[in-house]
Amino acid sequence: MVKGCLNHEPWAQQQLYDTFAPKMMAVCCRYARDREEAADFLQEGFIKIFHSIHRYEFQGSLEGWIRRIIVNTAIDLIRKRKSSQLEVPIGAEIADTVMDEDKMDNLEIEYLLRVIQSLPTGYRVVFNMYAIEGYAHAEIGEQLGISESTSRSQYTRAKALIKKRIHEDSMEFKSYQNAI
Questions:
Q1: Alpha helices, DSSP H, located in 83-180
Q2: Most distant CA atoms of the chain, gap in Å
Q3: Ordered domains of the chain (ranges, CATH)
Q4: pLDDT tens by residue, 114-133
Q5: Per-residue confidence at 43, pLDDT binned at 50, 70, 90?
Q6: Averaged over 150-173, what is the pLDDT?
Q7: Residues 6+ apart with CB under 8 A from 153
Q8: Nearest-CA neighbor of 167 among 103, 109, 75?
């Protein structure tokens, strides 16, 4: 498949896309505000993949190599589109909400994805890079052009905001149940 892509064979490009696009769309959805923006990230990412497939050295996972390009593309596009929103002012206050960690494990994936997508851009990007992609705060700071401490604080605030929104939603749901 990769060799076919190297020869610009349409069938190979289609096969590569069909094989990896669904998983990479899920990655893009975590970084995007909505599905439309995620589709943009995916499209731009695959354009980069097809243009740089000659750099794949057949060492390590092809999926990991593709994922890295998709994540970097999403980050680059966010940086270009929203560079002023990557850093949320220190004055932004988030209520300190305590939530049992086991409750987060039981949430449906789609709900959690919507909560993550609702985060401010800077929080969302740092949360995804650190909690999901496994980047270190120093790497995040370097890639986003922010300090390591800003990365740490935005991650902490993202977690707090996620907990707050989940708590609020659960309280709203309980109120709704009591009304019925």
A1: 101-105, 109-117, 121-127, 137-144, 148-179
A2: 63
A3: 1-83 (1.10.1740.10), 86-180 (1.10.10.10)
A4: 888 888 988 999 998 898 88
A5: very high
A6: 87
A7: 90
A8: 103
Amino acid letter, residue 57: E
Angle at 127 between CA 115 and CA 147, to 5 degrees: 140
The model's pTM is 0.62
Yes or no: say if 13 and 3 are a contact pair by the CB < 8 Å rule: no
Question: What length is written for the chain?
Answer: 180
Helix (H, G, I), strand (E, B) or coil at 104: helix
What amino acid occupies position 15?
Q
What is the residue-averaged pLDDT of the chain?
A: 82
pLDDT at 166 (0 to 100): 85
What distance in Å separates the CA atoms of residue 73 and residue 50, rounded to the nearest whole number?
A: 13
List the one residue out of 34, 35, 47, 36 whose CA is nearest residue 73: 47
What residues contact 117, with CB distance under 8 A and at least 6 apart?
29, 30, 32, 33, 34, 124
* pLDDT more than 70, % of the chain: 80
| Tokens encoding 112 | 């959690």
Phi-psi region of 60 (alpha: psi -120 to 50; beta: other; left: phi over 0): left
